[in-house]
Design a protein that fits this description.
Four Helix Bundle (Hemerythrin (Met), subunit A); two-stranded antiparallel sheet; about 70% helix; globular
Length: about 270
């Protein structure tokens, strides 16, 4: 047997390439995300608020999958990124604002629909800033509250709040939405959790916590999802406030320069 004929037995097997049709799979998830936002708007017109909120939550799940599928199949493209941003604006910017308007903001007159407009405006600005800074942004943190998280925190309370509330409560809900809109365009940092490797080995404690979270979600999905959304939206300001008020010794212990080191170097951080 010649060396050339023997080589075919020891040569590594070639990787099976994905079919060309797989390239459209991430876009299908993105379009499904867009459809959920569109249908949520229709259900908001019909005052089916719980179903509208459910569709916005499903849109968030689809939004988290399309990017991962594109990276797994090697089909990422600029077209897909732009399509994803447009679908996010519909599902997490426009749809929540219209659902909330029909839920109760319309009872506040001009104040209701004017200030509810801040939600899609802030969402569009958040998406535009993310697209511009995608190549230079810190992968571990988001700058500003991500629009899917803001949408979830804004509409999930509708599972528990009836439409017939007094106007004072609806005004508080409007102020809450304005605060979420401000967090989207702020410079507050939020963990992105992109550094988590889902393929890495997990300790028994981590697996137990994951199982516990799944049990809690299955036990009472609206309450658990609302708690997670509100905690995440609050985490950015809380962490920022803690970093400003904690003692300088804690910063030095973590590797950051202390006050004396800054004076010796002649440089002061921002």
């Amino acid at each position: 047997m010649s060396p050339r004929s023997f080589r075919k037995f020891v040569a590594p097997a070639r990787q099976i390439p994905f079919r060309k049709g797989v390239a459209i799979l991430p876009s299908l998830f993105t379009v499904a995300n867009m459809f959920c936002g569109y249908y949520a708007i229709i259900l908001g017109f019909k005052h089916a608020f719980e179903w509208a909120v459910t569709l916005i939550v499903i849109a968030g799940i689809l939004d988290s999958l399309d990017g991962r599928i594109a990276r797994m199949t090697g089909t990422t493209s600029d077209f897909g990124k732009e399509l994803d941003s447009l679908s996010d604006f519909l599902s997490f910017g426009l749809a929540p604002a219209l659902v909330l308007y029909h839920w109760g903001f319309k009872d506040l007159g001009r104040t209701g629909w004017l200030f509810a407009f801040l939600l899609p405006v802030a969402g569009a600005m958040r998406l535009a800033r993310f697209n511009v800074q995608a190549e230079i942004a810190d992968k571990k943190n988001f700058v500003g509250l991500p629009i899917p998280a803001a949408a979830a925190a804004a509409v999930l309370p509708l599972y528990f709040l009836p439409a017939g509330l007094p106007e004072a409560y609806k005004l508080l809900a409007l102020l809450y939405v304005v605060l979420l809109s401000f967090l989207m365009v702020s410079r507050v940092k939020y963990r992105s959790f992109k550094e988590l490797d889902l393929r890495a080995r997990r300790s028994p404690k981590v697996i137990f916590l994951q199982a516990l979270l799944l049990i809690l979600v299955a036990w009472h999905p609206p309450f658990v999802l609302l708690t997670v959304a509100v905690v995440y939206a609050s985490s950015g300001p809380v962490v920022m406030a803690w970093e400003r008020i904690r003692p300088p010794r804690a910063v030095a212990a973590e590797g950051g320069p202390g006050p004396m080191e800054e004076e010796e170097d002649g440089e002061v951080g921002p």
